[in-house]
Amino acid sequence: MQEMTYRLTTDLRRLSFENHDNCVSCGHAFQEGDTSHLGYDQNDKPLYVCDSCSGSLKETSIRHYFTPRPYEIPDQETKLWRYMDFSKYVSLLSSKAIYFTRTDCFEDLFEGAKGIRKNKERWNYHYLEFFKSAIKNSPEGHMCELPEEQIEKDAQRLLKEMEMGGEAHKKRTFVNCWHESEHESEAMWRLYSSFLANAVAIRTSYKGLYESLGRDPSINIGRVKYIDLNKNYAGPNDAFWRKRKSFEHEREVRALLTDMKYKGEGKLIPCDLSLLIEDVFVSPHAPEWFIHLVNDINEKYSIKVKVSRSELIEEPFL
Ligand SMILES: [Zn+2]
Q1: Which tens digits make up the pLDDT trace of 285-310?
Q2: pLDDT score at 69
Q3: What confidence tens digit (pLDDT) does each residue in 12-31 have?
Q4: Helical H segments across the chain, by residue range
Q5: Whole-number mean pLDDT of the chain?
Q6: How far is the centre of ligand 1, averaged over its atoms, from the C-alpha of 238 (Å)?
Q7: Ligand 1 mean position to 83 CA, how many Å?
Q8: Which of 71-80, 88-97, 100-109, 169-178 is predicted with the least confidence, judged by mean pLDDT?
Q9: Cα(256)–Cα(115) distance, integer angstroms
Q10: Tens digits of residue pLDDT in 101-143
Q11: What is the distance in A from the centroid of ligand 1 to the CA of 37?
Q12: Position 74 in a domain
């Protein structure tokens, strides 16, 4: 078996990121526990392949045990909306960057949570048993000769470490949220703009968001899944992709990144606004002058998108 070189170019990382579920040579759909191989062929072309195709690798950078993504990716053309105050809109234009909020700064205390505190005992029990069984079932050829008390102690330590990891993880995870919908939403206008008359919404698509951020393989973009935390838990890798059912109306798609070193409460990530902004809408309650203002600002920042008034303003006939 080839030695791993750990040489990971951006092209290789992007290839494995975009084709996460399948071998790029034969199309094999990876199953949990399969090995995926990242490396380069004889022409130094990046490859992301399955066991059967790994012979075509001249260099193996790294092998992974395949695990499915903890989130679902919407179709490329899926419409995403972001509703905001005018000041936030100007900030987006002037910074040419998207603001990612550190997850411990969100109002929702359940952000990144694995469950409800009153159910924690059950969750602890599940993972304690999981760790104990992992310690006892050592790899083939090795005997586990640890006494029961030691196994219990080690499992408790691993559980403790995982809990501490959960807290720390919140400070290293940054998120930018979008609302998935084909249409405008009256509720979202109300929720995400403190002063409704001066609110702006931008519409993009999954593809627009991904490409505007430079197809960066370190930024994950996917759907939040809404679960009943009375009955379920989020796993250690799922926690930032799960929310309580009571948030289901948000239909959130989030962009998420991890930064181990950065200490600020949010990160500005450069973004190509011409790829991001497909349409701009102003609130159904916006006065005429506000539309002119948004148009002026767009012109100042060379945003070539027409500003439309919210479609919710259309008059009915009875
Ligand atoms: Zn293959």
Answers
A1: 888 999 999 999 999 999 999 898 87
A2: 95
A3: 999 999 999 999 999 999 99
A4: 10-18, 86-95, 120-136, 148-172, 186-191, 206-212, 273-276, 288-300
A5: 89
A6: 27
A7: 43
A8: 100-109
A9: 20
A10: 999 888 777 777 777 777 788 878 888 888 888 888 776 667 7
A11: 10
A12: no
User: Could you give the CA distance from residue 182 to residue 205 in angstroms, rounded to a whole number?
Assistant: 10
Q: Enter the tokens of residue 189.
A: 């206008």
Phi and psi for 281 in degrees, rounded to 5? Answer: -120, 145
The protein residues having their C-beta less than 5 angstroms from ligand 1 (an ion) are: 23, 25-26, 28, 50, 53
CB 198 within 8 A of CB 290: yes
Instruction: Tell me how far the alpha carbon of residue 25 lies from the centroid of ligand 1, in angstroms.
Output: 5
Q: What percent of the chain is modeled with pLDDT above 90?
A: 59
Q: For residue 39, report the distance from its CA to the centre of ligand 1, in Å.
A: 13
d(CA 79, CA 81) in angstroms, rounded, equals 7
Residues 198 and 151 in one domain: no
pLDDT score at 285 = 84
43 C-alpha to ligand 1 centroid (Å) = 18
Instruction: Report how far ligand 1's centroid is from the alpha carbon of 223 (Å).
Output: 28
**Domain total in the chain:** 3
**Average pLDDT, stretch 212-233?**
91
Ligand 1 centre from 294 Cα, in Å? 51
Compare 82 and 188 and report the one with higher pLDDT. Answer: 82
Q: Strands 79-85, 252-258: parallel, antiparallel or unpaired by DSSP?
A: unpaired
* Enclosing domain of residue 31: 10-65
Are 61 and 93 within one domain?
A: no
The CA distance from 242 to 108, in Å, is: 12
Residue that is last in its domain, among 129, 151, 168: 168
